[in-house]
Amino acid sequence: MQTDTIRGDGRYEPSPPAPQAPPGGVARSLALGAAVAAGAMGAVLALTGLDSPLRAPFTLFFLLMAPAGALAVALGRMDPLGRAVVAGAGALAVDLLVAQVMLALHLWSVRGGVFAVAAFSGVLLLGCALRRRTGRTRARRTG
């Protein structure tokens, strides 16, 4: 509902239009929530060592999607297709780099690999959040 106001000095001021929901917003949110839940379940199953037939696919999903999601957030200004391709390739590179380093140091374990990928993804997301927050603060001070 749009309401118009008349200011104290007699000028007419229309209210801004209500924000519109993006097309497919609900379906996209549900799919994103399901993906996060599946990835979190994979990490929990791998870190706790519970025996389940879903442990391998959910853990693989986590190992691919956690770094891909973090890299996609870091590449926010790219077009969507290019961002998806670069984030997917970067996720594979992160997983291979973690495995190579752990094998070279004789520290290989499934739990350690899942933890290292989760730590990398979390640090990358935290860095992006801090960068955006400080960027807004600087913009407000100068603007």
TrEMBL record:
<keyword id="KW-0472">Membrane</keyword>
<feature type="transmembrane region" description="Helical">
    <location>
        <begin position="30"/>
        <end position="50"/>
    </location>
</feature>
<feature type="transmembrane region" description="Helical">
    <location>
        <begin position="114"/>
        <end position="131"/>
    </location>
</feature>
<feature type="transmembrane region" description="Helical">
    <location>
        <begin position="56"/>
        <end position="75"/>
    </location>
</feature>
<feature type="region of interest" description="Disordered">
    <location>
        <begin position="1"/>
        <end position="24"/>
    </location>
</feature>
<keyword id="KW-0812">Transmembrane</keyword>
<feature type="transmembrane region" description="Helical">
    <location>
        <begin position="84"/>
        <end position="108"/>
    </location>
</feature>
<protein>
    <recommendedName>
        <fullName>Integral membrane protein</fullName>
    </recommendedName>
</protein>
<keyword id="KW-1133">Transmembrane helix</keyword>
<feature type="compositionally biased region" description="Basic and acidic residues">
    <location>
        <begin position="1"/>
        <end position="12"/>
    </location>
</feature>
